[in-house]
Specification:
The chain is of the alpha/beta class. The chain contains 17 helices and ten strands. The strands form two sheets. A six-stranded mixed beta sheet has the order 1-2-3-5-7-10, sandwiched between helices. A four-stranded mixed beta sheet has the order 4-6-8-9.
Length: 376
């Protein structure tokens, strides 16, 4: 019996490894020239199109080639399977590869280089963010020129729940959303759905999901389109979309609270502000924040404050430093274990409270890596 259990345990471990080893498959991302465009399809639907290092290494050089190709007028990126655009970076594979330090260095370095390439892309870039779009998926879309959401879009930056921080340029785009909305989204991992993804400024357009394939066909059929032509097609579809058109932004009634409570410079003060407010919304946010990694909360708040006045490249350099410090720390691996592997949803954070996370601890996360810093 004991032998059988050991065998079963080994099998389960192998299944876990197999799941993240799946990242070696060549078909994980499809790169096709169609009509006037280069089309990138994230193709791991069983894994909600989670982004692996292998996928990043295929997308980056192709993006650069299409950028230089006079016959390619447009780049479209989408997810296969209908459920997700991309649910994030394959953090489980990264955590499991902790022994292979090289992997976590390469993954974050190359992912952030790709985020920057999307931002600086010389061709119009259209991300069809239908379905789940979180973490690494946000990095592949939000820095692009056009982001099209549908009623099935689900956006979140949930990293503080796994001992990480809202990376992939979160330090750049989050503080630039209206008021303190980005600070709220980055610290709490709050999920935006459907048209709210557009109302928050994450998406530039909103189109009913049943029209997505027609929209793509119309874009591909354009002849040597200018940016203007592409924008016209997107605007036309956006204008025709009726779903939730008259509903107000889900956080509209709470924006004053969000702006006042999340304008503090310390996590302790934000928590005090929420306590003092005492509304059911504020108390709900307190409950959520209390479950997050205290270290993650403190480094995230500083990341967003500093990022508000940095360029995207400066932000990505800062975030690369944070990523490497998180890999060396306790909370990321514990968060992945609790949320993604054992799924007991009970991470044991170290330090366990905000007051135990000192300014010196936080400063260490932001320290230069010298010759190992991310360079563009």
């Amino acid at each position: 019996m004991e032998r059988f259990n050991a065998f079963k345990r080994t099998n389960i471990i192998l299944q876990h490894l197999r799941m993240s080893k799946h990242t070696d498959v060549a078909g994980d991302v499809l790169l096709e020239r169609k009509g006037c465009a280069g089309v990138i399809t994230l193709n791991r639907p069983k894994f909600l199109n989670a982004l692996s290092l292998n996928m990043i290494r295929q997308i980056y050089p192709q993006l650069k080639r299409w950028e230089q190709d006079p016959e390619t007028f447009l780049i479209i990126i989408k997810g296969a399977g209908g459920k997700a655009f991309c649910a994030g970076g394959d953090v489980r594979a990264i955590s499991e590869a902790k022994k292979a330090k090289q992997m976590s260095q390469d993954f974050f370095r190359e992912e952030y280089m790709l985020n920057n390439a999307v931002d600086s892309c010389q061709k119009p870039y259209v991300a069809l963010i239908h379905g789940i779009t979180m973490g690494g998926g946000v990095g592949l879309s939000v820095h692009g020129q056009f982001r099209v959401a549908s009623e099935k879009s689900l956006f979140a930056m949930p990293e503080t729940a796994i001992g990480l921080f809202p990376d992939v340029g979160g330090g750049y785009f989050l503080p630039r959303l209206q008021g303190k909305l980005g600070y709220f989204l980055g610290l709490t991992g709050f999920r935006l759905k459907g048209r709210d993804v557009y109302r928050a400024g994450i998406a530039t357009h909103f189109v009913d999901s049943e029209k997505f394939s027609m929209l793509e066909e119309d874009l591909l059929a354009l002849k040597s389109p200018s940016e203007e032509n592409i924008m016209d097609v997107l605007e036309t579809y956006h204008a025709e979309s009726k779903i939730d058109k008259d509903k107000s932004f889900i956080l509209e009634e709470h924006m004053d609270k969000i702006n006042s409570c999340f304008s503090a410079n310390t996590m302790e003060q934000i928590i005090e502000n929420l306590r003092q407010d005492g509304s059911s919304f504020a108390l709900e946010q307190l409950k959520v924040i209390s479950k997050m990694s205290p270290t993650s909360l403190k480094i995230t708040l500083r990341q967003l404050i500093e990022g508000s006045s940095k360029t995207l490249q400066e932000v990505l350099t800062m975030e690369y430093r944070l990523s490497q410090a998180c890999m060396e720390g306790h909370d990321f691996h514990e968060g992945v274990r609790a949320v993604l592997i054992d799924k007991d949803q009970s991470p044991k954070w170290k330090p366990a409270s905000l007051k135990e996370v000192t300014d010196e601890d936080v400063n260490n996360y932001f320290k230069s890596l010298g010759s190992s810093d991310l360079k563009f």
